[in-house]
């Protein structure tokens, strides 16, 4: 039997898709890239902003047209969580709905007719998913499920439920298995990774994120550890010091800002101020001068004035991020801010987004220029027609002639050119 799976959204959804493929593999499904050949079509959805949700229903229509007679269509993931049975009503060609927190039920739900499993209290934090052999030298590893933060714009707590950490012994076993299968770099996933250990659903010795990093870095074959996303609020000195000192922890970090204005941060319920954010960045840069920093910024949050936006631009100038993910605020169902009266006109938000992104681009050009002549240790991730691609510990993406080097090798690469922010190098 054949399975076609489409994955939208963040790395957590990618990991959920891997889990579903693993579980379905146990009951005889193999993956296909051709939806018209599939016996089961899964759409793993994201609902963090409005657009992907609209795309979903047109996509369901397309699949319904081309699918094999008798093939099933299942809608999974975050949109499934908060729309539940409404999806079956709106799109009768859908056979079942499986919420983001219910992934471990996949093999059961495919046997039922018109089932809806979207229980937000379901706890699969101790479920050991079937896994496929990793096809890459990099792998994803979920360390917690859900999110307790309730930022006022965000639908995620309504799609993934409350935050529960996955027991450390399970994580160490999984990471060890991955390393033995040839994985060199793992990306730890959670909505607030540095809040790890705050709550387990079973008896568990007291641990925190730093303890987890320490333990993971004992695994021999594992060479690199990355994680996303940490929350700026939980970045205490001990965490930053461990980040700096642990040689296996890559020196690139995502520190989601959202806004540079204290008034907006407060309205968002982010729990930190611009001063705290800048203080953490200063501390981090002092400890790790070569650190790569990425961030998320929302423009046009309800009530955001041009003055508030200037505060965000000011942080962009001060931090000079290496990667920026920027979004126009999108009102989401079940969130407090979606009903507020002070929504910002689309034209204003679009103009602000453009300004933010074009300034960021200029900064990136300057940063790329400053990279010329520097040498990075790069882990080769792929080689296409003799050209290797890989990242440095601090997240710089480099391409270069592979020579005799292979995928999974670490090589020293000198930056020799840059074009539109991307770096070309040669093995030093
Ligand atoms: N847990 C992570 C974020 C997960 S959602 C954190 O706290 O940073 C990924 C990003 O989507 C967020 O950082 C935010 O910038 C963006 N986002 C979330 N809700 C949004 C909304 N309603 N409109 C626009 N962007 C949003
Ligand atoms: Fe959403 Fe905030 Fe949780 Fe991140 S921390 S997932 S933005 S509620
Ligand atoms: Fe991820 Fe989208 Fe859900 S960003 S957590 S798949 S809403």
Q: What are its keywords?
A:
428 residues, alpha/beta, Rossmann fold, Transcription Regulator spoIIAA, OB fold (Dihydrolipoamide Acetyltransferase, E2P), six-stranded parallel sheet, five-stranded mixed barrel, 13 helices, globular, binds S-adenosyl-L-homocysteine, binds iron/sulfur cluster, binds FE3-S4 cluster
Largest sheet: 6 strands, parallel
Physical arrangement of strands within the biggest beta sheet: 2-1-3-4-5-6
Based on CA atoms alone, the radius of gyration comes out at 22 Å
Share of helical residues: 25-40%
CATH domain class name of the domain at 133-250: Alpha Beta
What's the overall geometry? globular
> What is the overall pLDDT average?
96
How many β strands by DSSP? 19
The CATH architecture name of the domain at 133-250 reads: 2-Layer Sandwich
Strand content: 15-25%
Distance between the termini: 49 Å
Tell me what you see in this structure.
The chain is an alpha/beta fold and 428 residues long. The protein has 13 helices and 19 strands. Helix 12 links the parallel strand 13 and strand 14. The longest helix has 26 residues. The termini are far apart. FE3-S4 cluster (F3S) binds next to helix 1 and helix 6.
What's this entry about, in short?
Helices cover 34% and strands 23% of the residues.
Give me the secondary-structure topology.
Elements: E1 2-7, H1 11-26, E2 30-31, E3 40-45, H2 50-66, E4 72-77, H3 78-83, H4 85-90, E5 96-99, H5 106-109, E6 115-117, E7 138-142, E8 144-145, H6 156-160, E9 164-165, H7 168-180, E10 185-189, H8 209-216, E11 224-228, H9 237-245, E12 252-254, H10 262-268, H11 274-287, E13 292-299, H12 306-319, E14 323-328, H13 346-371, E15 375-384, E16 387-392, E17 397-401, E18 410-419, E19 422-427
Parallel strand pairs: 1-2, 1-3, 3-4, 4-5, 5-6, 7-10, 10-11, 12-13, 13-14, 17-19
Antiparallel strand pairs: 8-9, 15-16, 15-18, 16-17, 18-19
Helix pairs in contact: 9-11, 12-13
Bound molecules: S-adenosyl-L-homocysteine, iron/sulfur cluster and FE3-S4 cluster.
Catalytic activity: N(6)-dimethylallyladenosine(37) in tRNA + (sulfur carrier)-SH + AH2 + 2 S-adenosyl-L-methionine = 2-methylsulfanyl-N(6)-dimethylallyladenosine(37) in tRNA + (sulfur carrier)-H + 5'-deoxyadenosine + L-methionine + A + S-adenosyl-L-homocysteine + 2 H(+)
Enzyme class: transferase
Function: Catalyzes the methylthiolation of N6-(dimethylallyl)adenosine (i(6)A), leading to the formation of 2-methylthio-N6-(dimethylallyl)adenosine (ms(2)i(6)A) at position 37 in tRNAs that read codons beginning with uridine.
């Amino acid at each position: 039997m054949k399975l076609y799976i489409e994955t939208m959204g963040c790395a957590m959804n990618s990991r959920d898709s891997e889990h579903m493929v693993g579980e379905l593999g146990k009951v005889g499904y193999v993956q296909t890239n051709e939806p018209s050949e599939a016996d089961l079509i899964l759409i793993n959805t994201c609902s963090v902003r409005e657009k992907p949700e609209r795309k979903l229903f047109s996509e369901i229509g397309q699949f319904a047209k081309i699918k094999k007679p008798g093939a099933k269509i299942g809608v999974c993931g975050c949109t499934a969580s908060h729309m539940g049975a409404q999806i079956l009503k709106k799109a009768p060609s859908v056979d079942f709905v499986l919420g983001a927190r219910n992934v471990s039920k996949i093999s059961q739900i495919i046997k039922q007719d018109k089932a809806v499993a979207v229980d937000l209290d379901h706890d699969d934090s101790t479920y050991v998913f079937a896994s496929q052999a990793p096809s890459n030298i990099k792998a994803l590893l979920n360390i917690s499920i859900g999110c307790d933060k309730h930022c006022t714009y965000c639908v995620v707590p309504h799609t993934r439920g409350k935050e529960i950490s996955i027991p450390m012994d399970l994580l160490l076993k999984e990471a060890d298995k991955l390393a033995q299968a040839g994985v060199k770099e793992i990306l730890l996933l959670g909505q607030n990774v540095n809040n790890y250990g705050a709550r387990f659903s079973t008896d568990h010795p007291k641990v925190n994120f730093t303890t987890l990093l320490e333990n993971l870095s004992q695994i021999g074959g594992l060479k690199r550890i990355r994680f996303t996303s940490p929350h700026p609020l939980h970045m205490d000195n001990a965490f930053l010091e461990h980040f700096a000192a642990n040689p296996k922890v890559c020196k690139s970090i995502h520190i989601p800002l959202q806004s540079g204005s204290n008034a907006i941060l407060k309205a968002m319920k982010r729990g930190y101020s611009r001063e705290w954010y800048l203080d953490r960045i200063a501390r981090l840069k002092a400890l790790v001068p070569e650190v790569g920093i990425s961030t998320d910024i929302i423009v046009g949050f309800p009530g955001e004035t041009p003055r508030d936006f200037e505060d965000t631009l000011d942080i962009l100038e001060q931090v000079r991020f290496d990667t920026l993910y920027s979004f126009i605020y999108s009102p989401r169902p079940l969130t407090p801010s979606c009903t507020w009266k002070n929504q910002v006109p689309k034209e204003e938000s679009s103009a602000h987004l453009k300004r933010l992104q074009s300034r960021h681009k200029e900064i990136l050009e300057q940063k790329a220029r400053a990279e010329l002549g520097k040498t990075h240790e790069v882990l080769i991730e792929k080689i296409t027609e003799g050209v290797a691609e890989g990242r440095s510990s601090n997240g710089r993406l480099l391409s270069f002639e592979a020579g005799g080097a292979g995928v999974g090798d670490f090589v020293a690469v000198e930056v020799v050119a840059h074009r539109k922010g991307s770096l070309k190098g040669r093995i030093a």
